Amino acid sequence: MPKRAVASVTQAQSSPSTKRTRSVSKKVDSEDIKPPSSPKKDGNVQKSPNPKEAGPSTTKHARVKKTENANESTSLAAPSGKDHFAPDWVPRNKDIPAGDLHFARPAEDHIRIAIWNITSLKSSDKKGLMKYLKAEDPDVLVISETKYWGIGEKKGYAGIAILSKTKPVDIQYGLPGFQDASSNARMITIQFPHTVIVGTYAVNAGDQLKTLSNKMQWNDALEKHLLNYQGKDVIWCGDLNVVWDDRDLADASKKWNKSAGYTQAECDAHRRVLAATQMQDAWRVLHPDAVGEYTFYGWRGNCRARGSGWRIDSFIASTGAMKRIAACEIRHAIYGPSDHLPMVRNETTHLDCRSSWTSVN
């Protein structure tokens, strides 16, 4: 890759009462780095046997009115056995590792797509955001919760951006059919001749599950949106704000139908979207037996040290996109700039050309 690659930032941000989008061009350094090596899996901090943590992006728990308990539930997402925590090899660091970062490069005929909820562009930039991006050097980057370009009454709200070294043929902001004005700050869809990337910062069911109905409306609109691209290779990715497998969150039995992101309504709705669109969780397909590998560790309650997290970020892929996947990994050591970890997906495609682009009109 050249020393200085130009990437476009396609960004959407809005307040709940305003629908607007903006775009800007930025230069992203891809400096020469030393021969890469894969990060080691380590960590020796003991886990608490009885953690009490908040769910992703929420600090309160509340029961859904008279839902089934875990033992009675017929949902495939319901807790099925022993609660899990991150295994000992997962790092417990609270800051991005010191020194140079090294990641194995994808094969010459492959591209790399990275996703990361950065919590806030302003704060993560001071904690090692660019250090990671220079080392990873993805061909496409989807970042969510940018909290940048606040528009309207609620400043610094949500936000999503896509940076790409290849110019797409079409760009769509927001989620059609979803009436909440925050939609423009939660989704960007970019199209290439044969590939569609849908970057999302999904709606959260909220404190006391107050916005659960909003989440259900989001799922309905999302299903229709994804079905519009049947016949193309579709990659839906980003912060999905849902866990639909008890292996993908710590202390599942204590959170079932209490924590946003792990209620029967949300889990079953998410599974319906996957079934209707015939899409699969790419990471889970490639790691069928993995337990306790999370992408989110809340800053409160010492969750990182205790290995108490959630896997709420992922790549969901259509049948065609699954055939092209070469790898899908969580960057377990990259914690500190955000309370989320980045994920990467390598695949056998060129997105039809590798020319850089500098603006979005």
Account of the 3D structure:
The chain has helices at 121-125, 129-136, 212-227, 252-255, 264-277, 282-286, 303-306, 319-324; strands at residues 4-12, 21-29, 111-117, 140-144, 160-164, 170-173, 187-191, 195-201, 233-239, 280-281, 313-317, 325-330, 343-347. It has 361 residues and is an alpha+beta fold. The relative contact order is 0.22. Residues 1-9, 14-54, 57-68 and 353-361 have low confidence and may be disordered. The record marks 313 as: Important for catalytic activity. Belongs to the DNA repair enzymes AP/ExoA family.
Uncertain segments are 1-9, 14-54, 57-68, 353-361
Strand percentage lies at: 15-25%
Radius of gyration: 19 Å
Count of helical stretches: 8
Structural class, please? alpha+beta
Shape: globular
Give the mean pLDDT.
Answer: 81
Strand order of the largest sheet: 2-1-5-4-3-13-12
Query: What's the end-to-end separation, in Å?
Result: 26 Å
Helix/strand order, N-terminal first: EEEHHEEEEEHEHHEHHEHEE
- Summarize the biggest pleated sheet: 7 strands, mixed
Helix content percent band: 10-25%
Number of strands: 13
List the helices and strands and how they pair.
Blueprint: E1 4-12, E2 21-29, E3 111-117, H1 121-125, H2 129-136, E4 140-144, E5 160-164, E6 170-173, E7 187-191, E8 195-201, H3 212-227, E9 233-239, H4 252-255, H5 264-277, E10 280-281, H6 282-286, H7 303-306, E11 313-317, H8 319-324, E12 325-330, E13 343-347
Parallel strand pairs: 3-4, 8-9
Antiparallel strand pairs: 1-2, 1-5, 3-13, 4-5, 6-7, 7-8, 9-11, 10-11, 12-13
Helix pairs in contact: 3-5
